[in-house]
Structures are given as structure tokens and as C-alpha cells.
Design goal:
14 helices, alpha/beta, binds zinc ion, six-stranded mixed β-sheet, five-stranded parallel β-sheet, TIM Barrel, 432 residues
């Protein structure tokens, strides 16, 4: 279900690192030998043979990250991102696999469009990439796509992300058809009659600035509806970019009731609140919007206790000329692949709000589990999907050019702690 360029597998020995794989229960100083892209040995001392030796004293070696929510803008807006640039950005961010959303031009709603992307990924992708296909034709919310055919062509899951599926009746049928393909629906939950015209979270900051509000309830009523339908149809749903406390509580209740539901949160919703909007920086404008402190704290609690199993960047590149306009005119969306680890390490792990182990689990094993992907792990016999982290290095976002074609980062100019030193993805050295 994942594709990347055909390159030779790495022959590498990594020495001196603290190996940290929470899902495998490993936290020790160990050496790792990789033969032709496969982890051959994890031990206190391994033979280097003829391999390249990476001295990793003072660094952390962990399973590389999986991003279940990326916009690669291809086909249609290759000026904003391509398969090559987006996957290079992913590699630089420590990701060994990403999933791409289908809201491109044309929309990925046919086997022909999906098949062309799969072929292109085999030629161009720097890390393994999987594609979601649309739930409805053209993402117009009117008729379902041919989910069976799309699954056979390699669709990892289905999503109309960017827009909600407004009709409950159509959502119900989508759950029925998706079940027969054994694929989840990844849902952008937004009730458009409540959010329409809103630029920022409906609250004090919106009132002060005179912006039309996009209330929390626009998300949470849609989450409640879709979880109720998923429970009724025994379907599998994944709630994208949770932002509101009431949505998180709905997900928690549904999971306790046995609904096959998962959820993700983004670094920006975990770190920022609508206070950031006072800057009027178009790079803090995204959908769903940044919310209140209580919402952020609820997301963080749910991330800690596992109600939210995955961190997703919702990497959404935009051309500079489109974002470089007044706040109200700017499109929604920010980039995130190259800054996620450092942003979360700096703002959550550093101050003691989240353990490093939980952060690593939610960026890797969690999303892999949700979408049925091979879990990146530090174990003999596993494909080398590894990231080497320097958690002491400070760097300033934007000082080095992004690998992404777009620079609409909410962190431009920020100094962060924690850097990706090397990424092995699909057995190959994808970044160093
Ligand atoms: Zn969305
Ligand atoms: Zn998105």
C-alpha cells in the first residue's frame, strides 16, 4: 500500500545512541546493524563488517515517524508541493512513511488518477507514501466513489478531507461500502451551516478582532454524528485534526462504547491557542481553527491517555502569494512536516507536559496501527525505519531553506530544540 523510489538498501552500523522504542519496551544504549535495509542485529556490541559506521554518541535512535495526514498538492498544484519535495520534507522531519490526502486537482476519485500517483511515487518518492482516495466523486458530497476498485488500486483509506461529507445519509452508505473494502473513513468533521464564513475560533479573540467566528460546536456536532453512524453501521472511522474539547469527549465515549474510532491531533492545535491569531499572521490560519486553552489542554490529556492515538501534521503547503494577503483573505492551512518533532519536543516534552516515550509512540506506532501499516520498530528482522535525533541541538525555523516547496510555517523565526540528524525509510537512507 506504500510506494517509494527503488534504491539500494542501506548497510550501516549505528553506535553509541540511546535506543528508545516504547512499543518494544527498549530504552538502552545499544548498537544496531542494518544489512541491505533490514535490521540484522540489535545488541550491546555488533560487528561493523564492511558497513558504514555512524557514531551517534549523545543521540537518540527511535522508530521513524508516520504522518497519516499530508497534502502533497499533486496533481494540480506542483508549484506548492510535489511528490519529490513533499517526501523530501517528510524525510527531513524524521518520517519513514506518510499518507497523502486526495483533495488535489483532479481529485483522487478514480482508479486512473490513483494509479498514476502510485506510478509517480515509484519514480519520485523519497520515503514510502500511501494515498487516500475520495469518499465522494469530486469531493462534491453527492455520490460515492467506486471504493472497491480504488481499494484494489491501492487506496489506504477514504477521505473527503478539505470538506466534510455534509449528508448523513451519504455518510451512512459510505460506512457500509468502506467496510466491504476493509478500509477506514478518515473524516474532516465540520458542520458547514455552523462554520460558514468563519475565519477563527468563535470566542473572545474573534470578538475583539471583529472576525466572523467558527465555533467549536461546528466540529463537535459533526464528530457526534459520524461516531453515532459508525457505531450503528459497525464501521471504522478516524477523526482528523481534532480541535475541540467536546469532540474529544465524544471520541472518548464512543471508544468506551466499543465503536471502532480513532483520532489525531496536530502540533499546532497542541501548542497554540486562538491567542496566536492576535498577530494577524496568515500562517496561524487553519481549518479547524486554533481554539481556547481548555480545548488545547483536553487534546493534551487525550494524547497522554491514548484516546488520541496519533499526531498528524495536516501539512498543507500554500504558495507565498496566496498566503501573503490580509488574514481574512488567506487560505486555511500550514506546513508541518519539517518542524513537528522539534515543535512538540520544545513546547511539550521540554516543559514536562508530555513524556518523550509518549511523543514517539503517537508519532510512529500509533498512526501505523490505525491505518494497518507495518509498525516501525528497532528489532532484528524489521525493515530499517529509523530516526536519529539530537535532542539538544537548537535551530531557528526558516534559517535553512525548507525542503517543502512552500514556507507557510507557523514557526517561522522560532528557535526550537531537537533536530533530526538522520532518517532511514523503507530500508534506505532518506535524510542526513
Ligand atoms: Zn481537514
Ligand atoms: Zn487536511
Amino acid at each position: 500500500m506504500l510506494w517509494q523510489k527503488d534504491l539500494p538498501g542501506a548497510n550501516v552500523v549505528i553506535r553509541g545512541a540511546r535506543v528508545l522504542d516504547p512499543a518494544e519496551g527498549i530504552d538502552a544504549r545499544l548498537e544496531v546493524r542494518i544489512d541491505d535495509g533490514t535490521i540484522a542485529e540489535v545488541a550491546e556490541r555488533v560487528d561493523a563488517n564492511e558497513h558504514r559506521v555512524v557514531e551517534a554518541e549523545g543521540l537518540v535512535l527511535a522508530p521513524a515517524f508516520v504522518d497519516p495526514h499530508v497534502h502533497l498538492r499533486t496533481p494540480g498544484r506542483e508549484d506548492e508541493e510535489t511528490l519529490a519535495s513533499g517526501t523530501a520534507a517528510a524525510a527531513a522531519g524524521g518520517y519513514c512513511a506518510i499518507l497523502a490526502m486526495p483533495n488535489t486537482d483532479p481529485v483522487v476519485d478514480s482508479a486512473a488518477t490513483l494509479g498514476a500517483l502510485v506510478d509517480a511515487a515509484r519514480r519520485e518518492a523519497e520515503v514510502p507514501v500511501g494515498f487516500l482516495a475520495a469518499i465522494t466523486r469530486g469531493q462534491r458530497g453527492e455520490e460515492l466513489t467506486e471504493m472497491g476498485e480504488l481499494a484494489d488500486t491501492g487506496a489506504v483509506a477514504f477521505s473527503d478531507d478539505g470538506v466534510p461529507v455534509a449528508s448523513a445519509g451519504l455518510m451512512r452508505r459510505a460506512l457500509q461500502y468502506a467496510s466491504s473494502t476493509d478500509r477506514a473513513l478518515a473524516l474532516h468533521c465540520e458542520e458547514p451551516t455552523l462554520s460558514r464564513g468563519g475565519h477563527v475560533h468563535e470566542g473572545r479573540v474573534a470578538a475583539e478582532l471583529g472576525f466572523a467566528g467558527y465555533p467549536s460546536v461546528a466540529e463537535s456536532v459533526a464528530v457526534e454524528r459520524d461516531l453515532a453512524l459508525a457505531g450503528y453501521e459497525r464501521g471504522r472511522v478516524h477523526v482528523l485534526h481534532l480541535s475541540a474539547a467536546a469532540s474529544v469527549e465524544a471520541l472518548r465515549r464512543a471508544r468506551e462504547a466499543g465503536v471502532a474510532a480513532s483520532g489525531e491531533a496536530t502540533p499546532h492545535h497542541l501548542v497554540l491557542t486562538d491567542d496566536a491569531v492576535r498577530s494577524l499572521d496568515p500562517n496561524v490560519k487553519m481549518n479547524p481553527p486554533l481554539r481556547a486553552e481548555q480545548d488545547r489542554l483536553t487534546l493534551l490529556d487525550a494524547l497522554r491517555d491514548g484516546t488520541i492515538e496519533a499526531i498528524a501534521t495536516d501539512h498543507a503547503p500554500h504558495a507565498a502569494h496566496e498566503k501573503d494577503v490580509p488574514f481574512e483573505a488567506a487560505p486555511f492551512g500550514v506546513t508541518g512536516l519539517e518542524t513537528a518533532l522539534a515543535a512538540l519536543y520544545t513546547h511539550l516534552v521540554g516543559p514536562g507536559l508530555l513524556s518523550l516515550e509518549t511523543l514517539l509512540e503517537r508519532m510512529s506506532a500509533g498512526p501505523a496501527r490505525i491505518f494497518g501499516l507495518e509498525r516501525p520498530r528497532v528489532a532484528a528482522g524489521a525493515c530499517a525505519n529509523l530516526v536519529l535525533l539530537d535532542l539538544e541541538r537548537e535551530w531557528t525555523v526558516g534559517e535553512q531553506p525548507f525542503r517543502s516547496r512552500s514556507g507557510n510555517s507557523w514557526l517561522l523565526g522560532s528557535t526550537l530544540t531537537g533536530a533530526v540528524q538522520m532518517t532511514l525509510a523503507g530500508g534506505k537512507v532518506a535524510f542526513e
